[in-house]
C-alpha cells in the first residue's frame, strides 16, 4: 500500500493549455496553466502531508489537492520527531481526519489506511469506513498489522459489516484487510455483489463466517488469503465462485481446501500437506504448491487426482522440487534440489 494521493487522469474532452512562447521560441507553459487533472497527477506523486502543503502556494492552489480521488495514509504521514506512542497515534488520527474533512462532498475512489492497530483507533476506523461508504468508494484497504510479533498485539480490529449500506457496498470493487476480525454479519447483509478483488491477511475468523462472506462475492475474480488460521476446512462449494480466476492460500492453518471455481486459471498454496480439491477447474493453467511434511508419492498422487485439468504444476517438498508440464496427454518431469 503506497503512501500517496493518486489521481486518475480523464481524457473525456480536450483541455486547451496556453501555448505562449518564450524568447527562445519554446512553449512557455506555467504550472498554474495546467489542467486540474494534470495538476492532480503531479500531486499524486507526493505524500499526503506534502500534497496538503501545496495549498499555501496561492489562492488557486488552496483546494487543488482535494480533487485527488485516491487517498492513502500511513506512518510516514506522522512527524518522525514524535517519540511517545500515544502522541504518534493522535497525530495520525488528526491528520487523517483533517484530510477527509476537506474531501467531504468530493469523489473518493480509494481509501487506504496503513497503521498499527490499537484500541484507540476503533471509533476513528469506523468513522473512516463511514466516510468511504458515503463517497461510494470503489477500493478500501485497511492494513493494521504490526511488522512482527503478531501475538503480542492482542485483539484484532472487528470489521463493521453493519456500516456497509446496500447502495455503498454495491460500489465496492476491491477490499484489502489486514489484522482484522470477522464476526457474523447482520441478517440483512447483502454481501459484496460487485467485489472483484479480496485480499485477506492475518484475519481472525471461523470457517462458517468466512464461507458466508466468500459465498456472497459472486463476481470475485482475485482472492488471496494469507495467515488466516481457521483450524478447520476451507470450503466454498455451496455458492460457486464462477468468476474467480486467481486464488492464493498461504500459511493458513486449515485441514482441507475445497473450492468450486470453473474459471480458475492460477492457484497458489503454501503450507502443510492437506487434501485440495478444485471442482470444475477445467481452465486451470498454473498451480504452485509448497508442501511441508509430506511424502512425495502421496502428495503428487493427491494433487493429480484433485487437479486433473491443470496444465502447469509446480510442487516443492522441503528442498526437492517437481515441475510437471502437461501438453495434451504427454507430460514431462523436472526435479531440482
From TrEMBL:
Looking at the record, the residues that make up the F-box domain are 31-69
* Record-annotated At1g61320/AtMIF1 LRR domain positions: 99-317
Q: Which InterPro entries match?
A: At1g61320/At1g61330-like (IPR053772), F-box-like_dom_sf (IPR036047), F-box_AtFBL13-like (IPR053781), F-box_dom (IPR001810), LRR_At1g61320_AtMIF1 (IPR055357), LRR_dom_sf (IPR032675)
CDD domains, A to Z:
F-box_AtFBL13-like
Protein's UniProt name: Uncharacterized protein
Native organism is Aegilops tauschii subsp. strangulata
Amino acid at each position: 500500500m503506497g503512501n500517496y494521493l493518486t489521481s486518475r487522469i480523464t481524457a473525456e474532452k480536450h483541455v486547451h493549455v496556453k501555448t505562449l512562447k518564450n524568447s527562445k521560441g519554446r512553449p512557455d507553459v506555467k504550472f498554474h496553466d495546467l489542467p486540474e487533472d494534470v495538476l492532480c497527477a503531479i500531486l499524486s506523486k507526493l505524500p499526503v502531508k506534502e500534497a496538503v502543503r501545496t495549498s499555501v502556494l496561492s489562492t488557486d492552489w488552496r483546494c487543488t489537492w482535494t480533487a485527488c480521488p485516491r487517498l492513502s495514509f500511513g506512518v510516514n504521514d506522522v512527524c518522525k520527531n514524535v517519540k511517545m506512542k500515544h502522541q504518534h497515534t493522535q497525530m495520525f488520527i488528526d491528520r487523517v481526519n483533517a484530510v477527509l474533512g476537506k474531501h467531504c462532498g468530493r469523489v473518493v475512489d480509494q481509501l487506504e489506511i496503513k497503521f498499527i492497530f490499537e484500541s484507540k483507533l476503533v471509533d476513528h476506523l469506523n468513522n473512516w469506513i463511514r466516510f468511504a461508504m458515503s463517497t461510494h468508494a470503489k477500493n478500501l484497504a485497511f492494513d493494521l498489522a504490526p511488522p512482527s510479533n503478531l501475538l503480542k498485539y492482542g485483539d484484532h480490529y472487528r470489521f463493521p459489516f453493519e456500516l456497509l449500506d446496500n447502495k455503498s457496498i454495491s460500489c465496492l470493487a476491491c477490499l484489502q484487510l489486514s489484522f482484522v476480525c470477522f464476526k457474523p454479519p447482520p441478517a440483512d447483509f447483502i454481501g459484496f455483489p460487485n467485489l472483484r478483488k479480496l485480499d485477506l491477511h492475518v484475519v481472525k475468523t471461523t470457517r462458517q463466517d468466512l464461507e458466508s462472506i466468500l459465498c456472497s462475492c459472486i463476481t470475485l475474480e482475485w482472492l488471496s488469503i494469507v495467515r488466516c488460521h481457521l483450524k478447520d476446512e476451507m470450503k466454498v462449494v455451496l455458492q460457486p465462485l464462477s468468476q474467480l480466476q486467481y486464488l492464493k492460500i498461504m500459511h493458513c492453518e486449515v485441514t482441507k481446501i475445497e473450492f468450486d471455481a470453473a474459471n480458475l486459471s492460477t492457484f497458489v498454496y503454501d503450507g502443510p500437506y492437506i487434501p485440495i480439491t478444485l471442482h470444475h477447474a477445467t481452465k486451470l493453467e498454473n498451480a504452485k504448491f509448497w508442501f511441508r511434511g509430506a511424502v512425495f508419492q502421496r502428495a503428487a498422487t493427491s494433487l493429480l487426482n484433485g487437479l486433473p485439468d491443470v496444465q502447469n504444476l509446480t510442487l516443492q517438498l522441503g528442498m526437492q522440487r517437481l515441475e510437471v508440464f502437461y501438453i495434451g496427454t504427454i507430460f514431462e518431469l523436472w526435479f531440482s534440489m
